[in-house]
Amino acid sequence: MVDLKSQYLDIRDEVLTAFDETLTGMQLNLGPNVQAFEREWAQYSEVAHAVGVGNGTEALHLLLRAHDVGPGDEVITTSFTFIATIEAIVQTGATPVLVDIDPHTYCISPQLAAEAITPATRAIMAVHLYGHPADMGALAEAIAGRDILLLEDAAQAHGARYCGRRVGGLGDGAAFSFYLSKNLAAYGEGGVVTAGDEALAQRVRSLRVHGSLEKYVHEMIGYNSRLDELQAAVLRIKLRRLDAWNQARREHAARYDAALAGIDDLTLPVVADWAESVYHLYTVRSKRRDELAAALAAAGIGHAIHYAVPCHLQAALADLGYGKGSLPETERAASEVLSLPMYPELTDAQIDRVCEVVREALG
Ligand SMILES: Cc1ncc(COP(=O)(O)O)c(C=O)c1O
After folding, report:
1. Same-domain check for residues 288 and 216
2. Residue 363 has pLDDT above 90, yes or no
């Protein structure tokens, strides 16, 4: 699915030098790399503030906490996501309200989100799934004139654009993950909250260090969730290459698109006309998905299913009371999607081989 080692070998000298400088400088607690990365990430994401935190799940959680989302509040989101999106909502004490997806982009359906609004709705959490932005304009329209927040889970969409604007600055705050396999990834854990509002960013800064902006003075109960200084050093090196890597992903997607066009019962990823995807994943769908997976496995080709069991059918969320059949488009997608190998260093020959196996399996 991904080859993290080949990317490391390309940047090895820079990473080792940065590690040495960082450890020699020994300013490891929110040190110069975290501070510089926060400025650089804010600039890259075209948003005023970025606050580095421990991981993407914490970024979501702290963003919600900074907005005072909590018990009695409802947060509308999608079930077709990594469970962290929903975990973070549950951790605040708020209730996740799960609605179905748009079957083309796999992101939350703005129309269904609008229909799910109640007097208790505090926020809509859009997830830019697979690197493709959710329809933020339609979601903004759904909440227009109401006191409802529009938040972004941008964990899979570093650098993606909605109507020309980068994700991360499209609503009332966003969360990114730098998990190992993300488009921008640390060599460990990392995350960041982006926000246009200085007061909100300041609350996240406080929450990530035990509710404290001044040493040993605690204005609220917070967390221990700093972005690690060594990880920030890695992220700065990789950020300089992110646009080129995302461009490589788009070129790979175009090669897949061309080679896989016209196969019966194979639906290729769709990019909405207002979207610039960064192809975190190249995810196809087929009613013969399991056959396709078996053929890829037999050929030794990495593949994965994002996500075979949607969140509303996970045991951990059984209390929410969504049964089988409650979110039909999500459940259909879960039974049909399959992600093919996608990472910047993928070669044309590798893509061609994957396509050959897909054609043989479904052709
Ligand atoms: C959509 C989504 N949200 C949240 C997360 C959580 O990020 P992390 O693993 O850094 O906690 C991830 C990735 O793992 C994700 O894919």
Report:
1. no
2. no
Cβ of residue 156 lying under 6 Å from some atom of ligand 1: yes
Instruction: For residue 348, give its domain range.
Output: 242-362
CA 136, 258, 295: angle at the middle one, nearest 5? 95
Rounded to an integer, what distance in angstroms lies between the CA atom of residue 211 and that of residue 199?
14
Q: Does residue 79 line the site of ligand 1, with CB under 6 A?
A: no
What CATH number has the domain bearing residue 293? 3.90.1150.10
Domain boundary among 237, 269, 303: 237
85 and 38, same structural domain? Answer: yes
| Residue closest to 190 by CA, chosen among 61, 89, 52, 7 | 52
Phi, psi of 95, rounded to the nearest 5 degrees: -105, 120
Q: Which residue's CA is the closest to the ligand 1 atom numbered 12?
A: 155
**What are 81-109's pLDDT values in tens digits?**
999 999 999 999 999 999 999 999 999 99
pLDDT tens digits for range 281-334? 999 999 999 999 999 999 999 999 999 999 999 999 999 999 999 999 999 999
Report the alpha-carbon distance of residue 270 to residue 259 in Å, rounded.
Answer: 15
Of the residues 152, 177, 231, which should be mutated to test ligand 1's pocket, given the most ligand atoms within 8 Å of the CB? 177
Q: What is the pLDDT of residues 145-187, one digit of tens each?
A: 999 999 999 999 999 999 999 999 999 999 999 999 999 999 9
Measured from the CA of 129, which atom of ligand 1 is nearest? 1
Q: Are residues 220 and 265 in the same domain?
A: no
Domain end (from 183, 215, 237): 237
**Pocket flag, ligand 1, residue 54 (CB < 6 Å):** no
Ligand 1 atom closest to the CA of 57, numbered from 1: 11
